[in-house]
Amino acid sequence: MIEDIELLHTVIHGHTAFELLRTGLELDLFGHLEETGGLDLAGVAAALDTEEHAARVLLLGLASLRLLHKEGDTYRNAPLARRCLLRGSPNYLGPRVEMQRHVTNPGIGDLLESVRRNTNIGLRHLAGSGPTLYDRLAAHPEVQRVYYENMGDASSKTFPLVAETYDFSSARHVIDVGGGEATNALTLARAHPHLQVTVFDLDEPLALAVRNIKDAGLEDRVHTRAGDLFADPLPEGADTVVFSHLFESWSPARNTELLRKCHDALPPGGSVLVYSFVSDDDNTGPLSAAFMSAYFLAIATGEGMVPSGQDISRCLVDAGFSRTERHDGVGFQHALIAGIK
């Protein structure tokens, strides 16, 4: 019962918990504690250039959240903080915190009205005329930067598992639909030197992709093609299509529409790969899927959520693919589901 009450209090005061974490990151508290091996209250106040009273409030909050341990008078990073909150750590979650701050938090307060009206009312906090977050990003360079840094960071941590898990030996030309700044395309090209990869996306993210491809020296194998994934035809000549973190944005009907377009464009034996966060098939978790689904409904598109693996497989079958295969264990609560024509 005590644990249930603590969970409820954490939910009620969730925004405060977030701000405690963000403040610790902004002041580099976790970095100071790691560099010194631990500090007492006076040492923390000196390192953060704050009064001791303010430092004590921050330390109380982060210790209560179990991100810090206290031994005697000394505060040290808890194992979770060392794993996820230190800059330079392969599991650093700083970009996710910035995404929450700049993109999610301003609009998630409109979740109630978004549920009532089944549309993304929270998008009103980002000025513009388009009906989705993606339509409006270009008019807000700082928000766009945060968004693509978060997406690139997430892809760099998880997508290499796709390159390792799926058998690309018979593939020759892969289209990365909505491939943004080309993180996934470059990962595929490096892992499989025989592949040609085309990033298919809107003009704005492709400007970042062109720069990243040039920096990687892979212009001969990684290409870009501008277009709207719903309105424009896919680039020709591909035998494999990849959707990474796109199915969360759209309804099952729209996802099936995209897959039919792929089915029509692919040769016999061609495949489409859907790489996505997934929710449980019984719609009871996990928490990360629940939080992201609220973001997709209230802010991003007004129609998406984190799908289950069954949802994705059903869309593939409805789109005409004769066979599906599922791969789990490809990143934090992700699945890779393939449809073969």
* Number of helical stretches of at least 4 residues: 15
Topology pattern, helix = H, strand = E: HHHHHEEHHHHHEHEHEEHEHHEE
- Spatially, the strands of the biggest sheet line up as 5-4-3-6-7-9-8
**Cα-to-Cα separation, first versus last residue:** 52 Å
In short:
This protein is 50% helix and 14% strand.
Write the layout of secondary structure elements.
Layout: H1 2-12, H2 14-26, H3 29-36, H4 41-48, H5 52-64, E1 68-71, E2 74-77, H6 79-84, H7 94-108, H8 111-117, H9 133-136, H10 141-165, E3 173-177, H11 183-191, E4 196-201, H12 203-216, E5 222-226, E6 240-244, H13 252-265, E7 271-277, H14 287-300, H15 309-318, E8 323-328, E9 334-340
Parallel strand pairs: 3-4, 3-6, 4-5, 6-7
Antiparallel strand pairs: 1-2, 7-9, 8-9
Helix pairs in contact: 4-5, 7-10, 7-14, 8-14, 10-11, 13-15
Any descriptors?
alpha/beta; Arc Repressor Mutant, subunit A; Rossmann fold; seven-stranded mixed beta sheet; two-stranded antiparallel ribbon; S-adenosyl-L-methionine
Overall description:
The protein has 341 residues and is of the alpha/beta class. It folds into 2 domains: 2-84, Winged helix-like DNA-binding domain superfamily/Winged helix DNA-binding domain (Arc Repressor Mutant, subunit A), CATH 1.10.10.10; 94-340, Rossmann fold, CATH 3.40.50. The protein has 15 helices and 9 strands. The strands form 2 sheets. It has a 7-stranded mixed β-sheet, sandwiched between helices. Strands 1-2 form a two-stranded antiparallel sheet. Helix 7 (94-108) packs across helix 14 (287-300), helix 10 runs parallel beside helix 11 and helix 13 packs across helix 15. It is globular, with a radius of gyration of 22 Å. The mean pLDDT is 96.
